[in-house]
Amino acid sequence: MAERPSDSAATRRSFLKSSALFAGGTLAAGVFAPRVHAAGSDVLKLGLIGCGGRGTGAVGNAFAADPNTQLTAIADAFADRTDRALVQLRKESAERVNVPGEQVFTGFDAFEKLLATDVDVVILATPPHFRPKHLKAAIASGKHVFCEKPVAVDAPGVRSVLESCEEAKKKGLTVVSGLCYRYDPPKVETIKKIHDGAVGDIHTMHVSYNTGTLWHHGREPSWSDMEFQLRNWLYFTWLSGDFNVEQHVHSLDKAAWVMKDVPPVRATGLGGRQVRTGNDFGNVYDHFAVVYEYENGTKLFANCRQMAGCSVDVSDHIVGSQGKAELMRAVIEGEQPWRYRGEKPNMYEEEHRAMFQAIRSANPLNNGDYMAKSTMLAIMGRMAAYTGQTLTWDQCMSSSEDLSPAKYEWAEVSLPPVAMPGLTRFA
């Protein structure tokens, strides 16, 4: 492993100190159930791979969801991120953080070292590019997994995730997705009403994820291309999949859920970058608009934007022959009007609660199918917009385009140009 120069000393030190209401699964016949508790106790040991804001937040959600959990190992590409995460988590939940120095791992192979420890559950929260490889290794190591969204940035990655999740089923391992709305009671009940016919036959869906800008870290003189890109991963398609995949996947997942995860036949998209045009913003777009067409005639109109000074709209409209549903408001209007009035627990905690209940009951959950398909739905939209072509689901699922860099090392990274519709080719 090539060390990042600014972290080499810290890396050497770490070496030296070295409701199951949702989609689930059952143990395959003849498969022995994996160890579900830490040896001799009810405590489940957690390992965190990816120590950014979402990773540390997920650990906090896990702690809130199950009192008998402890964090015992962490891993990240950068030592300053592991240090910061430990400071934050110990400040918030000191009694739940039991991470000795020899179980703090950094570098590109940090995930392998963490998986070699005795953790029971791993939280995968690195940039999405790494998700397929990390998930495959976690399942091979016999770990239960909380898998943040999206789960890949290209079709080969999606296919790998599907294979890993099938392997998890064979091993009786739980895999829970970070597509959190599927664990949000208002959304669960609203979509159940839709599936029961509350809006009639669905003919149109319109989902929007129009927001402001997100964080950006300026470049330090000592950083290589690889370090700069990893620290600003949102802006590089190979790392994030572009924001149509990284962020808008939430909206697309809700639409996929409404359609019972039956994929569309084709998609046509457009997009570009009007505001984030500098080299520091990598090669991603800042707006997309994609139309997906389904076999039964339903059309999904999906748009997203990340620009400052513009109106914000995060909404999902489902229109049928007898009414319409507003998913974010959990309201149905029309012939069968309805509004959700039940409890509204924290959905980020609910997904972890469902995971831990599944593990402790030896009745595994496996969200692999929908988390892969929803990720592919987002990738499909990006590819349609990047190429300017109408693409089919089968074309996209079979795509050979692999966005991986030639090498994982702290050096220069060849960056593809910004995609130009009509010139960028589908692969």
What characteristics describe this protein?
427 residues, six-stranded parallel sheet, 14 helices, Rossmann fold, disordered N terminus, 2 domains, alpha/beta, Dihydrodipicolinate Reductase, domain 2, single chain
Domain module count? 2
Residue share in β-strands: 15-25%
Q: Could you give the distance between the termini?
A: 31 Å
Question: Unreliable stretches, pLDDT < 50, 5 or more residues?
Answer: 1-40
Order of strands, main sheet, comes to: 14-13-12-11-7-10-9-8-15
Report the count of strand segments.
15
| Number of discrete helical segments | 14
Order of helices and strands: HEHEHEHEHEHEHEHHHHEEEEEEEHHEH
SSE-based structural type = alpha/beta
Gyration radius (Cα, Å) is 21 Å
Level of helix content?
Answer: 25-40%
What number is the mean pLDDT?
Answer: 92
Outline type? globular
CATH architecture of the largest domain: 3-Layer(aba) Sandwich
Largest sheet properties: 9 strands, mixed
User: In the CATH scheme, what's the topology name of the largest domain?
Assistant: Rossmann fold
The CATH first-level class of the largest domain comes to Alpha Beta
CATH homologous superfamily placement of the largest domain: NAD(P)-binding Rossmann-like Domain
